[in-house]
Amino acid sequence: MFNILVLNCGSSSLKFQVIDMDGRKVLAKGLCERIGIDGSLTYENVRDGLAKVKTDLPLPDHKEAIKMTMNSLTDPAKGVLKSLDELSAVGHRIVHGGEKFTKSVMINDEVIAAIQEVSELAPLHNPANLAGIEACKAQIPNIPMVAVFDTAFHQTMPPRAYMYGIPLKYYNEMRIRRYGFHGTSHSYVSKAVAEHLGKKPEDLKTIVCHLGNGASISAVEYGKCIDTSMGFTTMAGLVMGTRCGDLDPGVMNYIMGKEHFDINRSSDILNKESGVLGLSGGLSSDFRDLWDARLSGNHDAEVALDVFIYNVAKYIGAYTAAMNGVDVICFTAGIGENDTRTRFAIMKYLGYLGITCDETANQVRGEITEISTKDSKVKVFVFPTNEELAIANETYDLVK
Ligand code: AMP
After folding, report:
1. Would you state the pLDDT for residue 10?
2. Fewest CB atoms less than 10 Å from the CB: which of 6, 101, 155, 199?
3. Are residues 127 and 211 both part of a single domain?
């Protein structure tokens, strides 16, 4: 038995899963919400197929949230552990590892200090991740912990992909560069698709399209990420659910000048009010709503979807050029795994690569499926991501 607790701490939330590494089975999962506000805990015993239960309870901080999570996991009626001794390790999702962390690491005081040091680069995320680590140190001090970074997989990018065309001093003094995010997902999918094809990652040029509410694309050449669409922040690259994606920096200067916005307001506009939500005139960030609206004749929804689809196709073209070819393209995350119409529309742009969509296979949702026709020169897959399992795997490899 080797049970790993996977933790993903946000500023007011904490998602958790317990995975039994013998057979990679999820035993339990859940979510603490509204930490520091009031609090609720949703818990599901997956192992015994018990119904999901949501309880309101005070969660003043992450420490209390971890304590309540542990109570649920060891509860005599609904728990999956007899005691916390049955936990072998904890894997923490850490959003930003800066340039310091190129792979997952065992957590010690030095690592905590280093995560703190790069917190400036992810002020909304890293402090919450650290709160999760500190809470575990207080509640389960003797269990080994591993930090798995969203940025680490992209650290193999060469300078030509990560440097911005701004004065060098901003890189030298402030470490402003492309970092990329969703690395755990890009890493997992690129490795898993190679395994699925009976090949090694080193044999393939792969483009992973992680299309969820947050969306990013990466070019993975022979197992190493050589470019990715997100940048210094998670706003760059594709137009997303509510984030703007690539934008002429002059646009914000112009709007701020006209409307006298401060930096906080402009950040809110670009992060929370833009993307397909903004393009559709505030209709929705959810692709199901947008497709419904488009089919009933809503022009703004049509343009919003077209912009998204066109952007993905453009990045696939760019990354094919960057790698001088591509063998496999994977669609993953909420939209990538479920949205048949968006996938089909993207694939229509890819005829020049010898790609044809198998429209029957493309009806699939959330299962590993080849959706290009057998004669396609490049294989296209729906390939579900599993960030929790990826974190558990990294943790297992280090702790074992
Ligand atoms: P994620 O951030 O990976 O959870 O993805 C969430 C997004 O996936 C939602 O906002 C939807 O736009 C999209 N999505 C989920 N299910 C479907 C579906 N059946 N059809 C189209 N889009 C979907």
Report:
1. 87
2. 199
3. no
In a domain, 155, yes or no: no
Closest atom, ligand 1, to C-alpha of 210: 3
Q: Residue 61 sits in a domain of what CATH number?
A: 3.30.420.40
**Alpha-carbon distances of 365 from 10, 80, 343, 359, rounded to whole Å:** 28, 30, 11, 13
Average pLDDT over residues 10-17: 92
The domain of 293 spans 198-387
Other beta carbons less than 10 A from residue 142's beta carbon: 8
Question: Is residue 213 within 6 Å of ligand 1 at its C-beta?
Answer: yes
C-alpha angle 360-365-369 in degrees, rounded to nearest 5: 60
Instruction: Point out the catalytic residue in the list 22, 38, 150, 397.
Output: 150
Q: Tell whether 38 is covered by a domain.
A: yes
* 20 and 77 fall within a common domain: yes
List, as own/partner pairs, every contact residues 12-15 make where C-beta atoms lie below 8 angstroms and the sequence separation is at least 24, other chains included. Answer: 12/36, 12/37, 14/62, 14/65, 14/66, 14/69, 14/132
Tell me the two tokens of residue 380.
Answer: 């296209």
| pLDDT recorded at residue 399 | 97
Q: Is the CB of 136 under 6 A from ligand 1?
A: no
Give kind and range of the element (H or E) at residue 101: none
150 is catalytic: yes
**Averaged over 239-245, what is the pLDDT?**
96
Evaluate: CB of 288 within 6 angstroms of ligand 1.
yes
State CA 267 to chain mean position distance. 20
118, 98 in Cβ contact below 8 A? yes
What share of the chain in percent tops pLDDT 70?
A: 100
DSSP, collapsed to helix, strand or coil, labels residue 375 as coil
The structural domain count of the chain equals: 2
Q: Can you tell me the mean pLDDT for 326-344? A: 98
Alpha helices of 49-162 — where are they, by DSSP H?
62-73, 109-117, 126-139, 159-162
The residue assigned the tokens 């790609």 is 355
Q: How far apart are CA 240 and CA 336, in angstroms?
A: 13
Give the model's pLDDT for residue 48.
97
Angle between helices 183-196 and 387-399 (to 10 degrees): 90
